[in-house]
## 1
Amino acid sequence: MTSHTTRFAPSPTGYLHLGHVVSAMHARAHAGVSGRFLIRIEDIDAQRCTPELSTAVLDDLAWLGFVSEGPIIKQSDHLPRYRALLDGLRAKGLIYPCGCTRAEIAAHSTQRAPDGSLVYPGTCRHQPVSADRVPAWRLDMARALDAIGGEPGWHEEVRGRIVGDAAAFGDVVLGRRDNGVSYHLCVTQDDAMQGIDLVTRGTDLFESTAVHRVLQELLGYPEPAYAHHALLFGADGKKLSKRDGAEAVRNLRECGTMPKQVLALARAAFTQAGMYADR
Ligand code: GLU
């Protein structure tokens, strides 16, 4: 098996659950014998990610035997570094300020992006934002695609060469108005900075890769390969999340379940989910 630098990058919006464990196992397995498995905490959302939850997630991972083979990055410690990237994109005229509220976007948007979000109708692309509004910063996707010569592709482990559809996401937010950064921006920066050459994650993020590939090209970062894993679903048919308390590693721990048993549970649930790998 080839070796890679991979990462498990949870957002600590709740306790670690079996879906996370599958993701961590997937990343570690893909690192191979002489590769590196890294852990990164994606906690830029200060409302939803608390320091207590970050600590709990890291503690559960350690209890399960997941060791980061390099420094653990906490994105909240590096906000100025991500914001600096926006300065470069701003200087090139590739991002613009947007003062629209959610309600205004909902009133004017006519399309949904592949991730289910509303496609920005472009209202602020060519007009100034009124001074009483703190702006978000959006990527001018058409300009960005022009600057890099069209949609970049990527290699996916199972599906082979993929042609992206970043245009379908429209002008995504790169700098949120509350913290000046965004998931797309931070994940792109950190994957490059940590030398991740194989990005492993759930199929729910498959389409977003198109946006990350655009950013990698704009920022001059190398192209990693990608491997997606099937998602675990709760009894209600929805993706496992922090709402599924029964699946939280913390609860299993408190009931006396041993790490090996938790890993076996995750493996069994994953084998079952694999049957529905394409959602
Ligand atoms: N932090 C993201 C999440 O927990 C994953 C990001 C990624 O793997 O690209 O859903």
## 2
Amino acid sequence: MSLNRHCIYLFAFGLMLTGCKTRQAPPTGLVTKQAMVVSAREEASAVGVSILQKGGNAFDAMVGTELALAVAYPFAGNLGGGGFMVYRKANGDVGALDYREKAPMAAHKGLYLDSLGNVVPGMSTLGATAVAVPGTVAGIFEVHRKFGTLPMEDLIAPVIELLERGVAVTQKQAERFERYREPILEVNGENTWFFNACQVGDTLQYPALLNTLERISKNGRDEFYKGETAKKLAAFIQARGGYVTEADLAAYEPVWRQPVIFAYKDLKIISMSPPSSGGVTMNQMFRMMEPYDVSEFGHNAAPYVQLFTEAARRAYADRNYFLGDPDFVSIPLDVLLSDAYLEDRMQGFSMERATPSEEVEHGRIPMAESMETTHYSIVDSEGNAVSVTTTLNGAYGSKLYCDELGFFLNNQMDDFSAKAGYPNMFGLIGAEANSIAPAKRMLSSMTPTIVEKEGELWMVVGSPGGSTIITAVAQTILNAHAFGMSMQEAVNAPRFHHQWLPDHIVFEQEGFSEALKNALTSKGYHINQDRTPILGKVDAIRVLEDGRLEGGADRRGDDTAVGY
Ligand code: DON
């Protein structure tokens, strides 16, 4: 072989290797050239895209999408809740907004305990006593103040049009209405407007919400926190025994935070910082897994499930003990995220045998699943990216619906630890760091995330799912990065979850064989056989190598990608 020929072979081999390293799966989701919104409802994605097409940027589109979800997806979209937003601007600047709800001033550590010190069932989950000070309206106005380019009225206008047109009830939505009908009637009485028409194909209109939004559009942010809406809202909550006052609403402010940023192999992951646990917990998990090449294990094969589970077990144990509102507690992040600490944390890991959770910490508790938060991802034609997760906490929040104003109120107070060692609705047990205090923010698992690859925007991703959000987001990133899936495949792939306590792995119904479960059981893993829940509902966007965008809209819901 001539030298030249040899060189050509070497060159071709080199190209192949480079090709392998950067090779990406062909897209299977919606592909568009310039911009995209992926959210829980087509109507909301379309509102966001209409704003982008009018020349608005990703931040403008966030305002419209967030409000449109409050209309088209009242299950979780909201005016009466809160959320977190992580952004990456086209120039590479990153940041995060915390518009999480806060405890009212009247709240205190023993708020949900009776005279014997026992947690009063339902008090932090159902009705007015569960409601925390909402942050959503303040959040979108703050995003607009800092980064918006179109006038606020122009961003609210398509949502008002949607309200005037009405929203068609989907099959999945009708089922949800039916499932939560009883507690909603229990909290609001038989005459509540909310259940007038909820059959598939019905068109729902929300006249009270239309009035509220028109006032907000006209009077701005203060309408919700200091104006007529604030007065009506505080009076409504207090008349039903709740704690939120006009003074609480007037004092509410969202906070810009430094996101959690870390490297995992050739990725840079940018995610939400406390008071959400998402970024810190995912950081710990990824870095505990980093010494291994998970792609060699195979997608959802036993060694991968083991490694992921052991990392999650350890990270969630830390989450529950150390994390809380950083404005109230000091979190030893420098230790928790240090190489030495994480290496030490994985010392007891073995592929031969599960580490029982008692050996990591103590306690046994039940866990509940649900899907009542919502996430949306946006990329605009400039390359600005916005990743937002917003929630009322439970399904329809506290179930308390303000007929006069036209929206549901959150039950976010349940995300606090009502009593040390007592599980919340997600089975998460908390410690002192997440105890209730006036004006404190409750710890969250919401994980709005943006991922860079080789310095460029690569993925925008997030999910609902309470405590399962973090593992759903982490698995979606790994599906695309380590297991060569397209964005849509990565979102659709079957998921599993472990959260330290209760000490069991939960699997989705499809995609996990009996042989796999038997292999894990033989190594000491406990498997939850009773339930086959949906784990997360991920909405994500991937930037393809040629710069086009691929949407991943979760098949588990009515989620839809729209773009151009
Ligand atoms: O902030 C949190 O972690 C919870 N309030 C999220 C609730 C949620 O995801 C409900 N849907 N499953």
## 3
Amino acid sequence: MPRLSDRVQTFTDSVIRRMTRISNKYGAINLSQGFPDFDPPKEMLDALAKTAYEGLHQYSITYGAKNFREALARKQGKAIGRTIDPEKEIVVTCGGTEAMMCAMMTICNPGDKVMVFSPFYENYGADAILSGADPIYIPLVPPKYDFDIQLVEDGFKKGAKAIIVCNPSNPCGKVFTREELMAIGELAVKYDGFVVTDEVYEHIVYEPYQHICMASLPGMYEHTITCNSLSKTYSITGWRLGYLIGPEEVVEAAKKVHDFLTVGAAAPLQEAAVTGLNFPDSYYEQLREIYTKKRNCFLEGLDRIGLEHNIPQGTYFVMIDIKKFLDIPWFQGYTDLEFCEWMIQNIGVAAVPGSSFFKEEVNHLIRLHFAREEKTLEEAIQRLGKLQEL
Ligand code: GLN
């Protein structure tokens, strides 16, 4: 009898997180796994310090501390344009990662089909396998990363139960337009399917683009499971605070899945994060400005050293074209993964190979993130400039 399940043979560890380990080993500038190198807002740190002595060291309510859910309902109710019931329509999870997995396990039976845009955030592949779903991939076609809505309709016609929409989209930085979301939404309603959204970059969007919640569109609340997290918005990826919002029937089932997966997110961290959820709108405007500066600084740097890249509309990721390097005889036969490993050791900058995001055979793109202090980004550009000497 095999010692391990079949399921664990069908996916690898996360390449994104593996690149962080390799980067740490060689002391490279880590632009692979996306997380900030700067501190969360001071008010949240003060709240965390205070919380340490307030005795909130035991379990909170499994689906989230009451005041945390209430604050979430207020903030996200504004974005969704509707009153959210904090008792019946929210589950607080351990990061957006658990929210996605919980959503998939709540709606999928083994063999159900789920549509996933490609390139996709690599977790969705494992989410599908672990929940028993079979993915149908819908290409987002570079350079604009647009898609053929007919393929989405074909997917629903083949019986797809849901479509995952990462908006703004990791890794390609696409921000879905209202028209695109409406078109997807209409099909979800027509075929009585779900849209499972991943909106963790909702506040990292560049002018003139605007993030629109799928659940805010007419008739879509009943068909949407909104997955989100506080990680990127408040620079607290290590706090592991995420949540899902959806119609009561779905949320009641998701509460059970979550309860047996993790029981609950860390109680003191939920308490401290309420401070962030109550920030005024100016905080989010400031965040957008901070990331706009970083994006501009990094993209200008890439232009200066002649590396071809896309222009992200949202998120803190940029895709770089490495085809011209892979064409050099010395790199012959290199995969993008091998190129990234070489780059960590020889250039001192870590990236994620594009092939871990694409269903299609794509070997010439790598993903870098720019959630770093500007001086670190400058140093990374200097190092990357050495690629041109090859
Ligand atoms: N979303 C981040 C990325 O794509 C990392 C998230 C994670 O590792 N959980 O790099």
